[in-house]
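As a representative case, we now present a protein record of this kind.
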Amino acid sequence: MACGNRTVNRINPLHIAGLLIVILIFFMIKLSSAKDELSHTKELYQETLSLSTQLNGLKEVYSNKSEIQKSLNILLKNRALTSSNIKQNISTSSMVLSSESMDKTALNFLMGKLLNGSYNIFSLKIKRLSEKNASLEVEIKW
């Protein structure tokens, strides 16, 4: 048997080590980006949780039909509004307050109470009739 130049195809161990290092670096970069994404997702979750808590509180304030009706009835019995002849039209989802003619002090009083209160004002129509009088139509939803 003659021993000739025979080449054996073997993989160089340095190539294997280099490939493993490249794969390790690739996974470290992917892990880092996954950590950043997780951190961002946690921040978004906290913001969403805070917003949902606030919306739930607002829902409790604005959707309590009996409390809204009770507070509006107390408001409309005020002496400043008795001469305005305000009509109430109550449906299952809203209340419409309307007056053909009311003086500007009564209008200012009513608007101050409505806009500063916790009412879901769906529509508001005020029409000036004269220097001192205006007509009003307000729809409050619950």
About this structure: The radius of gyration is 36 Å. The mean pLDDT is 88. Residues 65 and 85 are 23 Å apart (CA to CA). Helices lie at 13-62, 65-76, 104-116.
